[in-house]
Amino acid sequence: MVNGIYTLANDVVYDQLVALLNSIEVNAGREIPVYVIPYDDNIEKVKVEIDTRNNVNLFDDAASIARWEEFGSRVCKSHKRSQELMRKRGLPNNFRTQRYRKLCCLDGPFDKFIFFDGDTLLMKSLDEFYQKLDEYDWVTNDFQHKSDLNYIFNWTEEKITEVFQREKIINDVFCSGWFASKKCVFDDTMLANLLDKLESGEADVLHWIASDQTLLNYLVLRSGISSYNYACHDDATGSHWSSKFDVVDNILYDQGKPITYLHYMSISASSFTKLCAGEDVDIAYRDVFLHYRYLKSPEQRPQSFKRPSSLSQLQQATTGFVGQKIKNLKLKYRNLKDRIKQ
Description:
alpha/beta; 3-stranded antiparallel β-sheet; single chain; 39% helix; disordered C terminus
């Protein structure tokens, strides 16, 4: 039986990927094979980095990639509210379908696997999570259940109860930035059945802009496979960058216990790019990130950081303002055309 790790990346998140791979190498406690699923074809730097590592490979199963992009696209097309909102916002029908490539881990080469978003850092051994998969089909370790359910499912309470046939599901939802499972946990028959349900109307329960997170939550909860969330039990540690952790030798601790991983969720990739270029960007646990990013190339680590000039800040603000105005005008134009057609 082969256990491994998957992540999803391209050159846009190159700095985060290097930091993640280094954190896995030094904190996993043993060598664990890693597959990097390409987010798109922009992976020249990623491929060069992979070639320097013995235990890291590029996931190049084109059939699997096409399969999950098609699966996700069909779900999106069946979500009428999502399609309408994307049209109004000027987004294409296939908006960011690359996100569904994350689901390639479900039929990849590892018997048991753990998926890491590219903007995460591993802080401790993963052995207990692989062992937990002997008891459960799906394992998570986050506090999504303490957030608003609308981040996962966005429909009426009656509809949600009807689809999942239970009164409350808030304790079962999870962030798709980190999870553990098994190869083919959803067999072809199960997936075909779930897709049929989605295309027959159940897609309405998904968050308006059907992402990998809402889809994965649907697949796990609707299929009824067994799941376990460490964060729903005593002595669980946090993982979000906004939490207050203690730092000891570049390991983060939550009330004396090492956390499993740090997730830089919602922080833009450009912030990390600017930081690594020597710009003074305020990122939580910045020194920890830089430690792992330049673990193998300390001579390349920025020694000082410069604040962007007033002109640069003004240009960025102006570009954002003008861009938003253009989007607003395009939206008004499309709405006007729709009214004329009616």
